[in-house]
Specification:
The chain has 430 residues and is of the alpha+beta class. It contains twelve helices and 13 strands. It folds into three domains: 109 residues, Trigger factor ribosome-binding domain (Alpha-Beta Plaits, 2-Layer Sandwich); 96 residues, Chitinase A, domain 3, CATH 3.10.50.40; 148 residues, Orthogonal Bundle (Trigger factor, domain 2). The strands form four sheets. Strands 6, 7, 8, 9 and 10 form a five-stranded antiparallel β-sheet that branches. Strands 1-2-4-3 form a four-stranded antiparallel β-sheet.
């Protein structure tokens, strides 16, 4: 058998393979024996049909079987001989098969990218702290007061903190964004950060029964993408005005929030503790995402297209299982994610090999202990739950990801937040 790489472009390889005539004839002989034994032909007992009849009746099918068998047996040897790390199944073409002659075929394949050295230089993160300010505690307490406030109707003009009910009639919609023209009994909380600024600005001062036209210019980052960046005019008629009666900050209020808390001081301490935990979690998540982003940016290489397509196939299948609508556009929008996902997998596999990173029994015990503490379980119960849900492999992957992120974070230079650029992950020129 002979083989030669005829062309090499990027990760694509075109290989020409020649299988000698003796091997071809042996494959034909095996195929003839199989078809003679298994063929059911009218006028002949099983296994007794003449070879010329077998060839005439099953010639094309026999050739297909022979080619398949010869490629299947020769291709792995070729890959080993040429020392190729292939990423795709071969696309075989350009062959002519006949007895007594060599089989020459062309195999197009993609190979895995070679990662000779990983670049860790220049990974940076901002210096942060998880200190909780008094103002942040006060903001949460104010939120809790609003959440537990009494809301009651009043007979007066609208004020900026009120909750109102209005009928809305569309009077101007140049972009034809909204299908409906009227919206009745719309409740609006003027104190909410989600309420558009124009309602907060123009509706205070109106009384029940009064109306006013308001033009709303929705910001580009508005949460409803249909309305984002659009301008619509509404005629607003006030139907009801309600005010909030905020509870006083007493020990009784604290106990209403949490039955395990007796005083306002305890409530504020609990809020501070929870905010600290949340800040720490948010910062860890940000550092993880940011160091991955920078790491992938620094280690760019081509990814086999076959691996990308397989990744996208799996993703679309998962979406369909979850009854999510998928089409070619939705598939393509996930292509960058697929490329980065494959790059991350290939890079981290090399890191694990180079740095001998692995999951040890004590790592698993530590993770299960953390899981048990979070859900108020003992260790045995936690192990039983994890085994019952089939999450053991998922657990191992999670621990491995954590260790890989820890390794990358060990390569990071921390920079004062004021000097750090989130766009580039490096210090800005001053």
């Amino acid at each position: 058998m002979k083989s030669e790489i005829k062309s090499s472009e990027g990760l694509a390889r075109v290989i020409e393979v020649e299988v000698d005539a003796a091997t071809v004839d042996a494959a034909f002989a095996t195929a003839y024996k199989k078809y003679t034994k298994e063929a059911k032909l009218k006028g002949f007992r099983p296994g007794k049909a003449p070879l010329n009849v077998i060839k005439t009746t099953f010639g094309d099918a026999i050739k297909e079987d022979v080619v398949e068998e010869l490629v299947k047996s020769s291709y792995p040897e070729v890959i080993k001989e040429l020392d190729l790390k292939v990423a795709s199944f071969p696309d075989v073409s350009g062959y002519e098969l006949k007895e007594g002659a060599p089989l020459v075929y062309t195999a197009k394949v993609e190979v895995m990218p070679e990662i000779e050295k990983i670049d860790y230089e220049g990974l940076t993160l901002p210096e942060t702290d998880a200190e909780v300010r008094d103002s942040e505690v006060d903001t949460v307490v104010d939120f809790l007061r609003k959440k537990h406030a009494e809301i009651r109707p009043v007979e007066r003009a609208i004020e900026k903190e009120d909750v109102i009910k209005i009928d809305i009639e569309k009077t101007g919609d140049d972009d034809k964004v909204l299908d409906a023209d009227k919206f009745d009994d719309v409740e609006i909380d003027l104190s909410s950060a989600l309420t558009v600024a124009e309602f907060k600005e123009h509706l205070p001062g109106l009384k029940v029964g009064e109306e006013k036209e308001v033009e709303v210019k929705y910001p580009l980052d508005y949460n409803n993408k249909v309305l984002a960046g659009k301008a619509i005019k509404y005629l607003c008629k006030v139907k009801e005005v309600k005010e909030r009666i905020l509870p006083e900050l007493t020990d009784a209020f604290a106990a209403q929030i949490d039955e395990n808390i007796a005083t306002m001081l305890e409530l504020k301490l609990k809020v501070r503790e929870d905010l600290g935990k949340q800040k720490t979690m948010d910062q860890e998540k940000y550092k993880s995402n940011e160091v991955q982003r920078q790491f992938l940016d620094k280690n760019q290489f081509d990814v086999p297209n076959s691996m990308i397509e397989n990744y996208l196939d799996s993703m679309m299948e998962e979406f369909e299982k979850q009854k999510q609508k998928v089409d070619e556009n939705s598939r393509e929008q996930y292509r960058p994610m697929a490329v980065n996902g494959i790059r991350w997998s290939l890079l981290t596999n090399k890191i694990m090999t180079d740095e001998k990173i692995e999951v040890l029994p004590e790592d698993t015990e530590k993770w299960i202990k953390r899981f048990a503490d979070n859900y108020n379980m003992d260790m045995e119960k936690a192990k039983e739950v994890l085994s019952g849900t089939g999450r053991i492999q998922e657990l191992r992957n999670s621990i491995l990801d954590e260790k890989l992120i820890e390794f990358l974070l060990s390569k990071v230079t921390y920079i004062p937040e004021k000097d750090w650029s989130p766009e580039s992950g490096v210090t800005e020129d001053k």
